[in-house]
Predict the structure.
Amino acid sequence: MGRLFGTNGVRGVANKELTVEMIARLAATVGAFLGREIAIGRDGRTTSPMFRDAAISGLLSVGCNVHDAGMLPTPVLQHAVKHNGLDGGIMITASHNPPEFNGIKVIASDGVEIPREHEAEIEETYFGEGPEPSPWDTIGSIGTLQALEAYNEAVKSHVDAAAIREAGLKIAIDPGNGVAALTAPEIARDLGCSVYTVNVNVNGRFPGRDSEPRPDNLDGLKRLVRASGADLGIAFDGDGDRSMFVDEKGEVQWGDRSVALLAKDFMAKNPGERVVSAVNSSKVLDDVVTAAGGSVVRTKVGSVVISRVMVDQGIMFGGEENGGIMYGPHLQVRDGSMAMALMLEIMAKAKKPLSELFDELPRYHQLKDRVPCPEELKERALEALRGSVDAPEVGTIDGVRLGYEDGSWILFRPSGTEPVFRIYAEAESPERVAELVDEHKALIASVIESLG
Ligand code: MG
């Protein structure tokens, strides 16, 4: 059977890998699976209105009533589905992918992306006989859904708005021409911040920078922070669920460290709690969580997996190394604007520069690398590697993760999207992390070669 869903929904190059016909059939299948009342939203990509209309047609054809929420960030649609008691939602977006891509994220009634097993059921119907079309007299209806205002109010309700207003912070915001432009600046202004923006016009061609915020493409934001004297900067990905922070010196702080800083605050308010993260994120999270008497639940890589573990086990905080932050009291999904509001609260209460708050976290050195591996050898290579490694701790939640007495660790896992093994490693010194990577890179390469 074919596959449609990847790590985060369905993605492909518009009108090549992903067509209007596919989206209409997929939306009909999703609607038949989820129920009658379905919300729809879209990001700012040039092909999003076209796919939105195709998805609406598909949904109507199986008798769904469509609640069109227009252009908005993914977490806003997720909030609207949950808080309006709808049966589910479809977000037309390719998140942080280049402008020629598009896709959909399927949202369940609890506001979280559907679990992997539901994706498989939808694929089975999609590639099989397809959903049953409704007769002419039970076709669904189309209405509109106002989602932005209720969402903005919800985000503000989860922080100490008075304390943030009192602090009068200056913030530089870079939505990267994505749809976070529709929420983040307004929320920050409502919280009494002076707001400076770059790349704030929604534009599906992403003229300002790649829609994935990375340390190497945030020069515009870094300059804005320095020029405006902002207390912090924040960049969002294309659909506003991921965020990346810049401190007042204009230094980009990698996702792991933002997750840890926010987790530290969460643990101070909720000592002994558990938090969720994937096997590829930093030990800095374990340090702050265990110091507060809690523990970190590790999952396979992928935000959907983290969110679903949070829902199933009633856990209220989760995070990803790429800047995905899930704050459960609001929504158990990644939400960039929520992360922004929480960071503003931390700064307002600590009354310290952001760089200082980050400096209080333990510091580790990380390396990421890759080893080429043909698709057909991945499974066997992983099997062989499990048998040929030796370390005090060997984890097999996702790939192979080796842990050592000095706290260093290395993870290698077959990529879900490219013919490579991805390597993640971390240690207290740059020498130790380099040594770990060199040694295991050679091992992985020799195992793959012996199989080929
Ligand atoms: Mg995204």
